[in-house]
Specification:
heterodimer, A: about 230 residues, alpha/beta, 7 helices, about 25% strand, globular, B: about 290 residues, 9 helices
Chain lengths: ~230, ~290
């Protein structure tokens, strides 16, 4: 569950990234967070992964109150949120299997658990035969699937995807969205941050629209606000 | 734990060039500092040997027979700064004199009574020569004391300058070395900042991220220390042999490496490990703040 209550973030240079943002995302929801470049989407992601601290307001993520969270608790909070990035952020010198297994190793999983779980997740994202490859040997779509598998491997309560299709062609983008939808169907909360209007409109999901750091729309009808709105 | 240990060793290979650079810089710094330290150590021993040869002579009252003259030695040995007082009879003194002058007919028939019984005294600390001479002169039976206190002062000054200069130069070299080594390690860490950021983002604790770097620093430090030690040993032995082959450099005989082997090995091991482990763990710190 994500809860933003009247959150404002002002950067040191005085740049006001978001202002008075309040939003609530329940467990099991699928939400699009949309808005033009510079609207504050990335700031929201950074705030909910505790990369940034809010200037004012309060944030709660999967039971962790981020305004009072201790530094040493942040890794444990992050384990409840699987984050997927536009540039995949895979560890280049580790195989696909090891990239995914790493997520399990940090929580102290045994080799037996890893050997059982990683092939299952690889199968789930359609990469069952790619375990031994290095990330650079895969296509962009496949690399994003590896990133999704890594985010999924510890069964997080929530997946946050930051422009997950930004580097992919329309067909691969659609496939990735379908994959995220199927993950959501299994009970995981999914939040997709994007500015791709067409892609959003192909799905009938809740859309939260941000512009100039403020929430300007929050609806269940796939509504999308573009830059001209 | 086993996984983290393997990761540390594996990281060394996957970032082979940076590991190699870190080892090379550490080895170079260790060899430069230790070579200089060994040079200073040898010079210091050389000066100290020369200083020890500057002995004080205490002449005994002419009227004393040999037994009485020898008994003066027990009073001389009571002085704090006296390490050793060797009795030289007037006969022996005469023989030495003739030997020193090259012998010959002119010296035949010199009566040993021309010379006085004496003590050849080695001091603990030549910088206190003047005070010791005064004390010797007050001993009953000692009629005259001969000491080259100016020479002693000269040696003391050389030793002090040598100590001060070497300490200053070693500190400067150490600081420069630490700076170079820490920069090399920082560069290696900078190379991996994205990797560390990914680890942080998926929920790895700082301890989990740091441990492989600790292992890596430990291994790199150990390798650097070992390589530097054997390199230094080889260089030292080579130099020692070359010096012993040159007749004119016989005075500069080096202390055998075996005499400083343990100290050098322990120092190299400790410095290598400290630099490797501390350098890695400290350099990673700023990348962990994500």
């Amino acid at each position: 569950m994500i809860e933003f209550r009247n959150v404002t973030k002002v950067y040191e240079a005085g740049n006001r990234a978001i202002e008075g943002v309040s939003l609530h995302i329940d467990d099991g929801e699928f939400v699009f967070l949309v808005g033009p470049s510079g609207s504050g989407k990335s700031t929201i992601i950074k705030l909910l992964t505790a990369e940034l601290e809010p200037t004012s307001g309060s944030i709660e993520v999967n039971g962790y109150k981020l305004e009072t969270i201790k530094k040493r608790q942040i890794p444990y909070m992050r384990r409840t949120v699987g984050v997927i990035f536009q540039d995949f952020r895979l560890i280049e010198n580790k195989s696909v299997f090891e990239n995914i297994a790493y997520g399990m190793r940090i929580v102290g999983a045994s080799s037996r658990e890893i050997t059982a779980r990683v092939p299952y997740v690889l199968d789930l994202v359609g990469l069952e035969n790619r375990g031994r490859r290095l990330p650079h040997e895969l296509s962009g779509g496949e690399q994003q699937r590896v990133a999704i598998a890594r985010a999924l491997v510890n069964n997080p309560a929530m997946i946050v995807a930051d422009e997950p299709t930004g580097n992919l062609d329309p067909q691969r983008s659609y496939e990735i969205m379908m994959l995220l939808e199927s993950i959501n169907a299994l009970g995981t909360t999914v939040m997709v941050v994007t500015h791709e209007q067409e892609l959003v409109n192909r799905f009938t999901k809740r859309v939260i629209a941000i512009k100039d750091g403020r929430v300007i729309n929050d609806g269940m009808d796939g509504y999308y606000i573009n830059e001209e709105t | 734990m086993g996984y983290l240990f393997k990761e540390g060793v594996r990281n060394m290979y996957t970032h082979g060039f940076m590991s190699f650079a870190a080892v090379c810089v550490t080895v170079a710094c260790l060899v430069i500092i230790s070579s200089f330290s060994l040079l200073i150590y040898n010079l210091s021993i050389f000066v100290s040997d020369m200083e020890q040869q500057n002995r004080v002579l205490a002449y005994v009252e002419e009227t004393y027979d040999t037994a009485e003259a020898k008994s003066v030695g027990s009073r001389i040995n009571l002085l704090k700064n006296v390490r050793e007082a060797v009795f030289i009879s007037r006969e022996e003194a005469g023989e030495r004199f003739i030997r020193q002058e090259g012998g010959g007919e002119a010296y035949e028939g010199i009566d040993s009574s021309t010379f006085r019984d004496r003590f050849e005294i080695t001091l603990e600390d030549n910088s206190k020569m003047d005070e010791t001479v005064t004390a010797l002169e007050q001993i009953q039976g000692v009629v005259k004391v001969r000491a080259r206190s100016e020479l002693a002062k000269g040696f003391t000054t050389i030793q002090k300058v040598l100590n001060l200069a070497s300490a200053a130069i070693i500190v400067v070299l150490l600081v420069v070395s630490l700076f170079m080594i820490s920069n090399t390690i920082k560069l290696a860490m900078y190379d991996r900042r994205d990797e560390i950021a990914i680890m942080k983002m998926i929920g790895a604790t700082n301890r989990f991220i740091r441990f492989p770097y600790f292992v890596e620093g430990f291994v790199i430090g150990s390798i650097s220390g070992a390589v530097a030690f054997f390199l230094e040993w080889g260089l030292y032995d080579f130099l020692d042999k070359r010096i012993s082959e040159v007749q004119s450099l016989q005075l500069l005989k080096l202390v055998p490496f075996e005499q400083v082997l343990l100290l050098t090995a322990v120092t190299f091991g400790a410095v290598g490990l400290f630099v490797g482990v501390f350098g890695s763990v400290m350099s990673i710190r700023k990348f962990l703040d994500v």
